[in-house]
Every structure is written in structure tokens, then in C-alpha cells.
Amino acid sequence: MALDMEGMMKELRETYASGKTKSYEWRISQLRALLKIADHHDKEITEALRCDLNKPELESFVYEIASMKSSCQLALKQLKRWMKPEKAKTSLTTFPSSGQIVSEPLGVVLVISAWNFPFLLSLDPVIGAITAGNVVVLKPSEIAPATSALLSKLLGEYMDTSAVKVVEGAVDETTALLEQKWDKIFFTGNGKVGRIVLTAAVKHLTPVALELGGKSPVVVDKNINLKVAARRIIAGKWGCNNGQACVSPDYMITTKDYASQLLDVLRSELETFYGKDPLKSEDLSRIVNSNHFLRLTNLLDDEKVSGKIVHGGQRDKTNLKIAPTILLDVPQDSLIMNEEIFGPLLPILTVNKIEDSIDVINAREKPLAAYLFTNDKRIKEEFIRNVSTGGLLVNDTILHVAEHSLPFGGVGESGMGAYHGKFSFDAFSHKKAVLQRSFAGDVPARYPPYTPGKLRFLKALLNGDVVGLIRALIGCPTRLEKEKKSSIRKSKSPLGNPSGQPKQSFGPHGHCYRIQKLMR
């Protein structure tokens, strides 16, 4: 059935104009509905993820269902506080006044999600859009069709469909959506499609959040607990959708004299986790489709790296599986080092000293994540200070995305904008500046006709010159004005005033009169 895009947009605009999505009660009701979906349909969600990616049940629960529920529960707990206007301190310039920052919804927003975590990456941004009071259209990825169909079904049953809609489809449907005028577009995916989204948004000056990816490095220093480090690297690489994650470690850097020791421990732990024949392991996700399988095998078959495989490399084309694969000392100009891998392949680069890893990382585009394993405080500080990345984690991998108190997003080629926790609420809100004043305390000096006294007063006020402000109020001339008056007096005969000093009085030329004149 053809999608009535015009009719859908008209209904969404009318819903938003009615104001119902702005209420606290509506937002809470929709968040509770999302929680019911996760609680009552976890088996269906797990099965859809198994169908799309052969994702293990544990990963489906931890990384998708539980993560989504955590976002919902936090929003339910904190929403009233997030919605409350923030007080803003005002200055002497606007005295007397009060200021506040009011969060208001943007309006009608579009969320385009990714296939690798198709449940979480669809609903996490939707949670942000709802908490901020928007109406929202979700476009799930067609590359995960089972999850896409399930999301369409469940959101249709549980959500307010006049304000929350799901549009399924592929390129044609996405193109049609991007032709519409939105108040924000939130996209998760690769940089190529991200550029298409950004180009479409320019037509309507639509703000965009792009959650992209990149080559996220993991740097391993010596004198660490190598077994724990290896297990955490494996968990973030192969234990997280078999490397098909935007924050998955993409390549590793260690010193030449430490590489063999690190490699031995990685081999041992990989065998412990996935057995001697990892292609038969039920704890590894499959490659999402044949196109991505071919792309990954082409990276392995590149003549520059085919002889660099030191662990793994087995493939099962029928079941779209590739074993955890480690490559050592691959050339920097190889294919595998010049695109995001997004799969179970892990190249290791070696350097003379661990500090050299910073130059290796900074020679590339800014990554979405960077990981460092070290006990050296100086190395930690240098890494944090000099490596620009969306997020940085020391002595573990990927866990920073689970902290709602930290923003999740990229920088440069790895994306723009951030979300998670209150950052999701902020991502879909406009921060409206509100200044309130009474009719008291009006300052005539701001109005014409402009005089030297008014200028003197406003200069002192806006420069924060308290002494100058007092002098302006009581009519004391500045040094330049004194010199000017003095030169005028010298050019005239001091008849009637031999001393040449101005008379001080409270008459027409005295202090009180000057203040009154200035304030008129």
C-alpha cells in the first residue's frame, strides 16, 4: 500500500498543534507504554533479533531490551525535573529582572535507525523525542526486517498513533520521508548515508543529529592485568554483535615488544569463550547479510593483509559467519585500515613506545570511541588531553554508553549531536531564553535624546565600572571633561569668580539637579 506522506504529515502537525504531547501526563503515558512493550514481548523481541542477526539471547537482553528499559525508567523518574524551567542569573544591565531557560519541544521529528542494534537504536531516540514532548516518526532499518515489522506492530498497538508512527520500507520510503519538512532528524548509521540525510535537511534548514561511527582504536600498554584486559577487549569486540557495533574496537595498538604476549592471551581467551571451532558457537552473532559478508571477506583477501592473519580467519558463507580474526602489523595503506571494519576482524598495529599511539590515532579522522588500557597516570592524562574522540574509556570497552550521566555522540566524521539520559531530552528540545521585567526601574539614559551624561552613565554601567557609575550619577566629570573645561576657563577672563573654581550648590547646576536631569 502506497504511503500517504502528505496525509501523515498533516495529521502529525495537527496533533502537535493541539498541544497534547506537551503535557507531562501524555509523555509519562507513552513511556509506560514503551516499558510494557519491553516487559510483555521480550520473547518476541529476542526471536526477531535472532532472526535478523542470530544474536545470542544474552546480548539481546543486555544490550537491547535492558538498555532500552533503563532509558525509559530514568526518564520516568527524572522527567518532571527535566521539564522544569532552569533559573538563569541576570546581570546589572537588566536589573531588576529574572531569567529562566524553558525547554520546549521542537515539533515533528524523524528518527532513522540502524540494523545492528535494531530494537535499542530505534527506541532510545524515540524515548528522547517523547520526553521532550514531540511527535515522532520512526523509520526502522530494512536490513533487520523481522525487528522492523515487530516494532511497527507493537508501537501500533501500544502507542498513541496520532503522535507516534512507524514507517517501514527501504530507499524509496526513506527518500520520501527526507523530502518532508521536519523539525529535527535523528539518524544512526554510516557516514555515506549520513551525508545524504544532511544534504536533504539543508533544504528546510532542519537540525540534524548524526550518530555515525569510525575506526575506534584500543591502545594496550604493558604492566597491566593482561588477562582482564583481553577479556574486556573480546567482550567489546566479538561479544557485542560480533564486531558489528559503532563503538566496537576497530583496531589495536601496542608496543612491538608486547605484541606477542598480548596475542597469546587473546588467543587463549577467545578459545575459552568460543571454543576451538568458533563458527559453531551459538554465542557469536552472524554477519547481517551476504553483502556485508562479501565486504568483510574482501578486506581479508586484500593481498596486503592476507598473509598477516595470526588467528582465526575461518568463514562459513552459507551461515554468514566469520570467526574472530586477528591480524598483526597490517600496512597503514591496506583496505582494512582505511574504512570502518564493522565486523569480527581486529588488526594490531605496533609502535616503539606507547606514546606513539596518539600520533597514529590523530593521523586519522576522529573516532566515535577510543579505549586505553594502562596503569600509568601520565599516559592516561596525555591520552585524555590529546586524543579527540566522541567518548573515551580507560581500562574497559563500550561500557561508557551505559552511563546515562555521560553524553553519547561523535565528533567530526564520527557524527554530530549527542544523546542518552537527559542529553536525549536536550537533543529534542529547544532551550528558550526568557527574561522578565516589571515596569519599575526604567532607565531614561537608554532613550534619546542622547547626551554626554547619558553616554557616561551607560559606559560605566555596561563596563561594570561601579566607581564610574557613582560619579556619573552625582555628575562628577571625567578627567577629559575636566581638562576640556579647564582649557575653556583659561581662555576666558574669570570675572565674578577670581578663583576660577565652579560653584558647588544644589541649585540648577548642583549634584541633585544633575542626577534628576540624567534620570529624566
Sheet with the most strands, sense and barrel status? 7 strands, mixed
Mean pLDDT: 92
CATH topology of the largest domain: Aldehyde Dehydrogenase, Chain A, domain 1
Spans with pLDDT under 50 lasting ≥5 residues? 503-509
Give the N-to-C terminal Cα separation: 72 Å
Number of domains: 3
Please give the count of helices: 18
Radius of gyration: 32 Å
Strand order of the largest sheet: 10-13-14-9-8-15-16
The helix fraction, in percent, is 40-55%
CATH superfamily of the largest domain: Aldehyde Dehydrogenase, Chain A, domain 1
Query: Looking at the structure, what is the overall shape?
Result: globular
Number of strands: 20
User: Helix- and strand-based class?
Assistant: alpha/beta
Q: Report the β-strand fraction as a percent range.
A: 15-25%
CATH C-level of the largest domain: Alpha Beta
CATH architecture of the largest domain: 3-Layer(aba) Sandwich
GO biological process, one term: response to abscisic acid
Domain Aldehyde dehydrogenase: 9-434
Active site: 211, 246
GO molecular function: aldehyde dehydrogenase (NAD+) activity
Model description:
The protein has 520 residues and is an alpha/beta fold. It has 3 domains: 221 residues, 3-Layer(aba) Sandwich (Aldehyde Dehydrogenase, Chain A, domain 1), CATH 3.40.605.10; 193 residues, Aldehyde Dehydrogenase, Chain A, domain 2 (3-Layer(aba) Sandwich); 76 residues, no CATH class. 42% of the residues lie in helices and 16% in strands. The chain contains 18 helices and 20 strands. The strands form 5 sheets. It has a 7-stranded mixed beta sheet, sandwiched between helices. Strands 5-4-3-6-7-18 form a 6-stranded mixed beta sheet, with helices on both faces. Strand 11 and strand 12 form a beta hairpin. Helix 4 runs parallel beside helix 5 and helix 15 runs antiparallel to helix 16. It is globular and about 105 Å long. About 1% of the residues have low confidence.
